[in-house]
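Example record used in the benchmark description.
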Amino acid sequence: MEKETEAKTSEIRKKEFTYRGKTIDELKKLDVREFSKYIKSKPRRSVLRQFQQIENFINRAKIKTERNKQIRTHQREIIIVPEMVGMKISIHDGRTFVPTIITGEMLGHRLGEFAMTRSRVKHGKSGIGATKGSKFKAKK
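Model output (structure tokens):
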């Protein structure tokens, strides 16, 4: 009985992230085109079309991390692959660069999905003349 509860608690603590039955370490060993076999059809086609662009991005990112420089990009259409997991990338949202840490759950998604281009609208109080009730108030 003790062994069962001990096994369950150790299993809960040691639960490692897997993507389609593969661990991150196993996925990092794969080439970009080999990884494309594990993602859904639309991102797979994108990866197979732009694999050179993704590989160039990863190489530039590794060089910048060696020099302790920030990785900033406007390339929102790049698909996230296992070699990017753990990187801190600032993605341009049209106005600023949004810092994003790439995790395993982001695999197969595009960079642009994690830097929203539209911010949430925060409405303040209405001004004079904005509503019918405020139309006839004194403008002092």
